Amino acid sequence: GWKSSVRWLVWIQTIYAAAAILINLIEGDPSKAPDPTIILFFPLLAVVLVLGYVNGYRPPRFAESRVLLTGLLAFIVTVLNEHLVASNMLPWSWRVEPVGFFIFTSCLGYIAVRRFFINEQQLTEFNKEMEDAMRIQSAILPQQMPRIEGLQIATRYLPMTAVAGDFYDF
User: Could you tell me the pTM of the whole model?
Assistant: First the structure.
């Protein structure tokens, strides 16, 4: 599962960090060890994703999954570009990671706003249904008291805030 995969990634990164610190101390140059993101994180992440797919893992689908994946892909590509440029492995020097992060957070914001409005619409529809149910319920209550000679009749109606559970008694 994902927990064990993440645990493996953390252990591998930790071992790499210890080895990189040792190499940098021995060489006396803090930049001797290569960037772990390029040689470890992205390849290991790809392996974990492929193994998960082969083993039948399919993330749950939701309405905005394409928007989320688009933003995440944009961010991952810009992060990869940033690390490759920093390692002088690309012929250009464009540093666009902030743009990828902006795209990703914009996608997350779009999803949050969309879900807010959907929830608000559902709440409005629910409240309308509750009002209709309260009107129906009050329509079935007696409108007049029965009149019996020598007897005084009083009623008591204790409505709840929602339908069901109201109390009406003579």
Answer: 0.62
